[in-house]
Amino acid sequence: MFRTVTGTLAAALLASTMVAGSAFAADKTTLDFYYPVAVGGPITKIIDGYVAAFEAEHPEIDVNPIYSGSYQDTVTKALTAFKGGDAPEVAVMLSTDMYTLIDEGAIVAFDDIAATDDQKALPSKFYPAFMANSQAGGKTWGIPFQRSTIVAYWNKEAFREAGLDPEKGPDSWDEYVAMGHKLTRTDASGNVIRWGVQIPSSGFPYWLFQALTTQNDVELASDDGTVTHYDDPKVVEALTFWRDLSAKEKIHAPGIVEWGTTPRDFFEGKAAMIWTTTGNLTNIRKNAPFEFGVGMLPAKARRGSPTGGGNFYVFSSATDAQKAAAATFVTWMSTPERAAQWGIDTGYVAVRPDAWQTPAMQDYVKGFPAAAVARDQLDYAVAELSTHENQRVTTALNNALQAVLTGAAEPKPALEAAQAEATRILRPYR
């Protein structure tokens, strides 16, 4: 009899425990988190580690990272899922996707879901340059995370060989051309074995081109994303300069230069000076078999680079509980310590000034001063080109750039055609 009673009590206790466990599981809030990376590797491991640490501190929230391909893949998948009723709750997508996401009604303003004092204060914590295309209509739509600028890298060994000061990169367009001639090398048959300069032009050439237009003191679009200035004479001048690096000066490879292979070309000595994202800083530091320099981009009328990279966005289709959980997750991912470590681990710019005051970041910069170049360049940075119907509007510009760089068109008519197309697309938003 005693055994029977004990067994009954044990069964009752087990059932009670299972019900409690089920209730606890049911109380958990789950977030699907789209993150733009196409393959596994160090970045996915870092994100997985962050998610595990967050869940340990917030056991009431489950975060499910979904590695969603390129930035382009991610926004396409996210919007398709949103229209199909199965959107993620939070995603990292390009800052330039902001107007498109707003127009689709896909995202909520962070201000509208911020509940705690830390959440409400969060938008004020970032560099103004990164907030320029994170806010619209008086609201914050994106929270900066993996943000960047374009910086210049140069091979110090090649500089020494060419009789140049290896500690000083070019400061102006004229110096780029002059140094490029000294750094370009040919073999006995006259074939180029090392180009002096390399500016990639595949993938998103508009971004690299915007550095040139900024340096020529002209904006490609209005702040409200409704008007472009592709046919401005200063824009034409900037494209002519880029084209002439290869067509006239012969210090840059002709045709389209691949974005993805540019760091490798640098490692292999095929290009002495390159422009690429500061997000490649850690990659280049780990893989360059020579000493290299890092500097701000050169000036013509002024210095300058567009910002770039991704923001956190919270989807409007999330439940109230999921929006609250997403605000908690985004705020946790954006602390000064985490922003600093992310910058150290990846090379992206730590997105808030107080991140640079953390002991970890101060030690990092002390041992690797080049890490501070992108931060310092923020004083000269502008918002990355972003408009309504952004992909269509930038595609018009990209097509013009690539036509000119391949010799299929002249700068002025190509940019006039791009402007006409952009004007047609944007007319309904004015």
TrEMBL record:
InterPro entries given in the database record: Bact_solute-bd_prot1, SBP
Cell location: Periplasm
Keyword DNA repair assigned: no
Main location per the UniProt record: periplasm
Pfam family, one: SBP_bac_8
Keyword annotations from UniProtKB, A to Z: Signal
Signal sequence annotation: 1-25
Cellular component terms per the entry's GO annotation: periplasmic space
Similarity annotation: Belongs to the bacterial solute-binding protein 1 family.
Protein name: Extracellular solute-binding protein
Species this chain originates from: Tistrella mobilis (strain KA081020-065)
Taxonomic lineage from the root: Bacteria, Pseudomonadati, Pseudomonadota, Alphaproteobacteria, Geminicoccales
